[in-house]
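Notebook B, p. 112. Complex prediction, attempt 2.
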Amino acid sequence: MRMSNIAKQIAPGLALQKVDERIMTLNVGPQHPGSGHMRIIVQIDGDKIVACDPDPGYVHRGEEKMAEYRNYIQNIPHLERPVIHDSCNILYPYCLATEEILHIEVPERAKYVRVIAAELNRCVYTLYWLAIYGIFLGHSTMFMWPTGDRELLIDLLEKMTGARVTHAYFVPGGVRNDLPANFEDVCLRQVDYFEKRIRAYADIFYDNPILISRTRDAGTLSRQDAVRLGTTGSVLRASGVDYDIRKKEPYDCYDSLDFETSVLKSGDAYARSKVPWLDMLESCRIIRDALSKMPQSGSVRVKLKPNPKGDEMTSYKRVESGRGTLGCYVVSDGKPEPYRVKMSVGSFRNLISLPYLLKGEKLGNMPAVYWSLNYWPVEADR
Amino acid sequence: MADQVPATSGDAPPADTPPEPAALPELDTGLRSKLESGLGDAVKVASATPGRIHIDVNSKDVVRVAEFVRDELGFDHAESVTGVDRPADSEIEVVYHLGSYTRPELGGYVMAISTRAPRQDNPDPGNDSTRLPTLREVFYSVEFHEREAFEMLGVYFDGHPDNRRLLLPEDWADLPPMRKDFAIKGR
Amino acid sequence: MMKDLLTPQNANVFVGKLGDILEKAVGAPLGYAINWGRIWSLWPVHIETACCSVEFGAASGPRYDVERFGIIEAFGSLRQCDLVVVQGTITRKMAPRLRLVYDQMPEPKYVIAMGACAITGGLYFDSYNVLPGIDGILPVDVYVPGCPPRPETLIQGCMLLQEKIKRMKARSHV
């Protein structure tokens, strides 16, 4: 490979090194119980954070480059890997964009099946996130409860798709296979039980005075700043902006379903931790509604020609995932492989607010603020 | 894969011809006429579908256009910044996808502003002519996206305060990986 | 006679020799006891490297509960850890950090390569930023295949590691 005279970009962290004597630079991560797969470089003055520089990229695997070498169908398994526990939602915009490029109309039943799978997956993702949030705050019960309840939904998804987490269930043109026999009853029963379970989280987590004292007024993001920084998903809705792609730009059958968006006003870490939980309650409602409105029979997938080619066009589609708006920009040049696939992911967009939120916070608040951004490093790095 | 298709009939074969483009809603045509009356020749509408408008802008005008789009049309944040390498035109395209949180009627609307920078065959990121003016002063939210575009395609954003590396390893000394002449192994 | 042999000058040597003799005499049963202790308290490092950490988390959850097999849930400092579960893809940026983490751990230490990416690069075999397996940077004890491996597979891998430790020579480490 050609090694040219590429100018070296400055490595992250170096810009922070001219420091006062009393200010200490601290590397949090990538091996740290409170960082995940990323490094946060913070400068602290005593206990107060004066500057912060997030350093993502530890799981940058070049998905977008790889997508240029595979055809539209071969791209499915590796494009879902950034968020394997929300794999339906991350494939959703790619499938919608590909359908526009290949001019495919999705069958009616497939739309409902997709919505059910996507909502179940949103709950699976949110429960994992909540479990890790529990660990970050030293609340072990909050790790055990969501991880246990998550398995129920994983069982459901396993019945539907055949895999625990990496489903590869959505394909351009519908879903890979139809629902198993008797799925509706099992799903309704599980969802009823699940809703009862997550309502109990309010008692041990959201009404817990220790949690409230740790997260209330930590990392407050005002409405103006949430808009200016371009945050998305639960971070945005916790700051009082009512913005949900499912309502604003309904895809598949969301416009026929009955649900509400959950919006809180305060914009602190507590509100950001509560919005995904409220979303899960709405997800239960959506699943029940979709199950009742779903056509009982019909095809769930349009048969594609092998190696389908698209027109020379671009398509940008958005869905609402567990972490916020997920956009996928696909450029096609008429070949079986996409010319360019760009995933605009919620985690990456929310990351920009981290330096802003941590400034002036206590160091002990860092995990609480950082994970409340609904951040999944693998997705941000792609 | 074909054997997994359920036996139920009714599979419509994919249409070979693209369907007729639907008539654009009033909002779309309104935005488009505002753009054309406010900016004149500076913008070329490349494509417009319901809820999406894609405009091509010369790199000289991109800041002016972005300010107009923010102040007059109400788009307030960037959703993504995509770099697309176009070796055939010897250019690198940068696409800004803009959305609006503050105007409820624009919630489902995305404006794509596309601009192009000259492409170098032997790039030297940061020091060659592959440069564009930054939009960070207009849309604060493009900060990390432009950093990503710089390391992935070598487009230097003039005026960006923080053109550092973001995702690639610190010792990356090869071509910017999203360029088409950077081939991944075995391909 | 003992008193004549033992002078302040050679006391250290004498005690050292005594230690050697003792270790030879009781080495085998002692080694068994040491290994028994090691297999029931494997402390994994809290380093997530990619998406397999989701299934690692699920394995610590109530349904799979790896703690009953002696694999403690990942908490705390790497200075008291003796197991690295490499949870998936190692990118070029993460590789030096992973090695740094491994080097800081006290002996004895074991490595489980979890997932196809950690074994061969897996799905990312042609990516520009992914290592083709971690064999090049760490000595791997057990490979756990899958993309991602189910928690059951991870548990089986851990039990294989325990079998391996049981049959290992319990070395004395300085």
